From TrEMBL:
This is ATP-binding cassette domain-containing protein. The keyword Repeat does not apply. InterPro entries: AAA+_ATPase (IPR003593), ABC_transporter-like_ATP-bd (IPR003439), ABC_transpr_LolD-like (IPR015854), P-loop_NTPase (IPR027417). SUPFAM superfamilies: P-loop containing nucleoside triphosphate hydrolases (SSF52540). GO terms for molecular function: ATP binding. It holds the Pfam family ABC_tran. It comes from Solibacillus palustris.
Amino acid sequence: MITIENLQKSFTIHHLNQTFPALENLTLHVQEGGFLGIVGKSGSGKSTILKSIYRTYEPQAGSIWYDSAAFGEIDLLTASLRDIIYLRKHEIGYVSQFLNVMPRTTALELVMQSLYGVGAKEEEALEKAKSALRHFDIDEKLWNSYPNNFSGGEKLRLNIACAVVKEPRLLLLDEPTASLDHASKIKVRESIEKLKARGTTLIGIFHDLEFMEGLCDQVFTMTKLSEERTAI
């Protein structure tokens, strides 16, 4: 599903006139329907991998080959912006620790909009959105509220609901359980297991190793660039 070859990404701090490497000659392969977990210390480049796949970041070198249902094998680093937007809408989901939303959009509307993007009609989108919000324990009193004032945990659960409700072919998870209590983590795990059973390919970053146990097919350990990186 995903093959990353010789990926290189660095960041330049212009006012310091310094460049810092984040990824150097990184190579990875994820089978269709598999789940790759990425672990490592803060600053080792874990999130940079996901953001490069999603094209939030643009690496300086390398390739990310993705087996798309719409376009066949496509290099996400050289694909047109139009194709990237299409893939984000229809095939590739991304869950971050933060929720960025349009103003004056309710929690229910946000989840429904995710479903509209993949062609769901209003009635279907409404029922699936309500089901997703219930699953992730978003209080029904909050469904028609704006998420700006939600707690960190509520925002994260809403963010996950928006991503998983579309049942994407590829789902990128950047610390999906970062600020959740144990009960909420179980809900996230249940959703991930269902998606995996339906054939979704997943790549996730976790600090909670207990949460990952028995969930990932492969674990890739990120370290400092001066150290060896290993896949087990």
